[in-house]
Amino acid sequence: MNTPKILAIGKATQDVFLKSDEFSPQMEGKVAYTHLPLGVKMEVEDIVFATGGNASNVAVTLARQGLHSSYMWTLGYDPASETVLRDLDSEGVDTSHVVRRDKYRAGYSNILIATDGERTILNNKGVSTDAHDVDIDLDAIADVDWVYPTSLALGGIDLLRIIVDRADEAGVKVMLNPAGPELAEPNKLKSLLSSVEVLCVNKEEMQMLVDGESLEELVRHALHYVPVAIVSDGPRGVIASDGKTIVTAGMYEDVPVVDRTGAGDAFASGFLSQWAAGKSLRDSVIFASANSTSVVTQFGAKAGILRSNADLHDMPIEEKPF
Ligand SMILES: Nc1ncnc2c1ncn2[C@@H]1O[C@H](COP(=O)(O)OP(=O)(O)OP(=O)(O)O)[C@@H](O)[C@H]1O
Ligand SMILES: [Mg+2]
User: Fold this and answer.
1) Half-sphere exposure of 63 (CA within 13 A, CB side)
2) Is 88 helix (H, G, I), strand (E, B) or coil?
């Protein structure tokens, strides 16, 4: 099999994590949680710079796993856009389809980490394309094997529909792990599932799309719409089916969670990095679990992403006929 080509589409951000002993829940009135005291200077002991945005995280998993990974979105010439592009370039992600214009800006977040690990996020959403005046090169979709659209900002579900339709026309497979803007309209999301090959969502999200209480019920119902369905439930595990077998997995490893940003991205992209390359459902779930577990042990959504030489270990996992 040739190396699969996968295109991730969606917004990117720069995240700056600020840790301070003064961001303490023990402080009187929990000031660090609810208000920053006006007019004071607070010391920040530790700063971690990271880039995020679901699609950009996905592109890095795919590149680190040796696939032909490309990233497409609208970015500007602001420092956050520059940082995102530098990060993706250094990971070997193809960014040649990124559209850069003065009017666009990447997202930017300051994330204040309190001493107990709780966080306060100061977020600027940035400026990017929308669905009325689509400013990305949709023809690029026809050149890849898989497209992974997520977190399309103002484009939302309408831009998702445009991307999915283009993929359908071109016979390109779609992996869907929707984020906030696409989940805002579950009925519209459901109406485009007939063009989706792999749907990967968490339990609450799947319950917005199909009926069911248990993960198994949910995955069985989802298979009425898509060929491959995966439902994750945080540290409680995950269930996946391709209509032939059902794989049920528990926790990969009980790790200390430093920052759970990017867990869902690492899981879904970790799955695709194996599945697109022809690995079994079971092996794809094991790698996805290992990748997401590694990501939550570090600040930022990318630092913990596994490389192709990573050693995997066994995990609680069962496979049965569908
Ligand atoms: N506390 C944890 N410890 C170990 N692994 C975890 C933990 N939380 C999540 N994971 C891993 O990440 C995967 C995806 O997590 P989850 O089901 O919470 O997805 P999600 O809600 O879509 O996440 P996100 O908010 O990032 O979109 C899980 O299946 C698991 O492998
Ligand atoms: Mg998610």
Assistant:
1) 21
2) helix
CATH of domain 5-321: 3.40.1190.20
Pairing label, strands 68-72, 119-124: unpaired
Look at residue 277 and give its three-state secondary structure: coil
DSSP 131-189: SSS--S-GGGGGGSSEEEE---GGGHHHHHHHHHHHHHHHT-EEEE---HHHHT-HHHH
Asked if 147 and 71 touch (Cβ cutoff 8 Å), the reply is no
pLDDT tens-digit readout, 71-104: 999 999 999 999 999 999 999 999 999 999 999 9
pLDDT digits (tens, 9 = 90+) for 219-243: 999 999 999 999 999 989 999 999 9
Provide residues with CB under 6 Å of ligand 1.
Answer: 202, 232-235, 238, 251-252, 255, 257, 260, 262-264, 267, 289, 292-293, 296
Look-up of token digits 């600040």: 299
C-alpha 256 to ligand 1 mean position (Å): 13
Note the maximum CA span of the chain: 63
**Phi then psi for 102, rounded to 5 degrees?**
-55, -35
